[in-house]
Design goal:
single chain, six-stranded mixed β-sheet
Length: 143
């Protein structure tokens, strides 16, 4: 599974070179410039507040998989710097308890996080939670 680190080196997918990333994006049907633009938008949403000022918690280690980013985009879900800091803290708490796969519940969404990889695997809005069964998780953190 490819992951996009929205807080570290923006534009690096699993340490691939920019040339290889472009090929990867084109193979998925997304042109290189569109892929770079998506990465920029995700980074800006994640680390910049509404006023465009870099948040104090911009250097988070939590990553989002490509699938999670697609779900966020399709469902209109976004997280500001404060929410991302809380997500990061929730994952750290789960890790401290020995969790491997956790469900993180927020006021408006749910995230499945691979704690050992520090990666958000998927994201659901509150409407998608009803009548859902979550499997292969060993913990839940409510924030």
């Amino acid at each position: 599974m490819s992951t996009i680190n929205t807080f570290g080196k923006i534009g690096q997918v699993n340490g691939l070179s920019p040339e290889r990333q472009s090929g990867l994006a084109d193979a998925k049907g997304v042109k290189g410039e569109g892929f770079r633009e998506t990465l920029r938008q995700v980074r800006d949403q994640a680390v910049l507040g509404a006023d465009g000022v870099k948040g104090a918690q911009a250097e988070l280690s939590l990553k989002f998989s490509g699938h999670a980013i697609d779900r966020m985009r399709n469902r209109g879900i976004s997280y500001g710097p404060e929410a991302l800091a809380k997500l990061n803290q929730a994952v750290e708490k789960a890790a401290a308890k020995g969790a491997k796969e956790t469900l993180v519940l927020t006021d408006n969404s749910a995230l499945i996080v691979s704690v050992k990889n520090n990666t958000v695997v998927t994201v659901m809005d509150k409407g998608a939670l009803k009548d859902n069964v979550f499997t292969n998780i060993d913990s839940t953190v409510v924030i």
